[in-house]
Amino acid sequence: MPRPVARVLALLELLQSGGTRTVTELAGRLDVDERTVRRYVGHLVDLDVPVESVRGRYGGYRLAPGYRLPPLMLSDDEALAVLLGLVAGRRAGLTTTMGTASETAAAKIRRVLPERLSRRLDALLGSLAFTDRPGETVAPHSTVLLAIADAVSHHRPISIRYTAADGRRSERTLHPHGVVAHSGRWYVTAADLTADEDRTFRLDRITEVRILPGSFEPPAGLDPAERVLTGLATAPYRYEVTLRIQGTAEQIHTRLPAGVAIVTELPSPSSADPQTERWSRVELRVERLDWLPAVLASLDRPFLIERPDELRDLVEALAERLRNSARRSPPHA
User: Fold this and answer.
1) The dihedral of CA 306, 309, 314, 318: what is its sign?
2) Looking at the predicted structure, is the pLDDT value of residue 73 above 70?
3) Residue 251 reports pLDDT greater than 50
């Protein structure tokens, strides 16, 4: 490739990275003088690339916003980052109902990569293994996701059509506070004006969104992610479990995540030894209890069960099975 052409493409790549670039900066990056930079900019304009000139002390050149620029140029590191991001996004459920979009985007990128880089990326993706299994993912429609995100950003009220888990359909007016992705699902936290309470809604169960006139002031200090996790941990299930475990919230959450259990660290008694580790109150609601004894054992921390009594029986049964297994001798040859 002739050197001037290569530098024009390098200029295009610099402008693609965003922001306004001064003539002095561009000249230094391209190793040319400022007059040559202006000539290269003229070449791009002749090719219908929308380069804007910005006047003033901090002026320079930039690309017009919103322009779909062909060709998109990616370095080796950028191409790798994009492809790995698409793979991770699919596994984490960070996709929409147009699920093929991530696959076609990856295919387009790989199709235009140099053969040398394409072979290396194929080798990486072919040999890549994950330590965790992909969970169940339920994706919302892209129009729903984007409309709600826009309403959150601009504090606009919305009207939605929602289908609950039991199949009941309703139309609700919301003040949306935040969009949260958790365990393969998307949620919106909002003030539900229809029911006059704060609620969390799954985006995949929303079939229509309308932006309403006006605006609202979101509550100060609101953490949408924490609200989703708290809502999941307090959802109505068959059993309400209350425990006391010796340890901090961080230690307990390694086995009982925030979306499963609410952990409240308890104050130490005034007479307690300061070196003694504090206890925490743990509350969770579950449909089944049979998995909890093994989790409590894996914490390897003292605990006591406040409720339900059925959990005590299950813990004792697990302890008996472990005791019997520890006493069992291997068969003689």
Assistant:
1) positive
2) no
3) yes
List 179's β-bridge partners, or say none: 188
Residue 195, φ and ψ in degrees, nearest 5? -100, -5
Model pLDDT for residues 266-316, shown as the tens digit of each residue = 987 665 566 667 899 999 988 889 999 999 999 999 999 999 999 999 999
Cα 69 to its chain centre, rounded Å, is 28
- Strand-pairing partners, residue 304, are 244
Measured CA angle at 232 (ends 140, 304), to 5 deg:
155
For the chain, what is the HEC assignment?
A: CCHHHHHHHHHHHHHHCCCCECHHHHHHHHCCCHHHHHHHHHHHHHCCCCEEEECCCCCEEEECCCCCCCCCCCCHHHHHHHHHHHHHHHHHCCCCCCCHHHHHHHHHHHHHCCHHHHHHHHHHHHHCCCCCCCCCCECCCHHHHHHHHHHHHHCCCEEEEEECCCCCEEEEEEEEEEEEEECCEEEEEEEECCCCEEEEEEHHHEEEEEECCCCCCCCCCCCHHHHHHHHHHCCCCCEEEEEEEECCHHHHCCCCCCCCEEEEECCCCCCCCCCCCCEEEEEEEECCCCCHHHHHHHHCCCEEEEECHHHHHHHHHHHHHHHHHHHCCCCCC
Q: Which residue, among 160, 193, 163, 162, has the nearest Cα to 175 in the 3D structure? A: 193
pLDDT digits (tens, 9 = 90+) for 83-127: 778 777 776 666 665 556 677 777 777 776 777 777 777 777 777
> Among 249, 243, 96, which residue's Cα sits nearest to residue 179?
96
Residue 84: C-alpha distances to residues 61, 138, 172, 267 (Å): 31, 21, 38, 45
- 26 vs 213: CA distance, rounded Å: 45
The single residue listed with the structure tokens 């202006």 is 38
Q: How far is CA 97 from CA 80, 105, 238, 265, in A?
A: 25, 15, 32, 40
How far is residue 259's CA from residue 290's CA, in Å, rounded to a whole number? 19
CA-closest candidate to residue 174, choices 147, 196, 153: 196
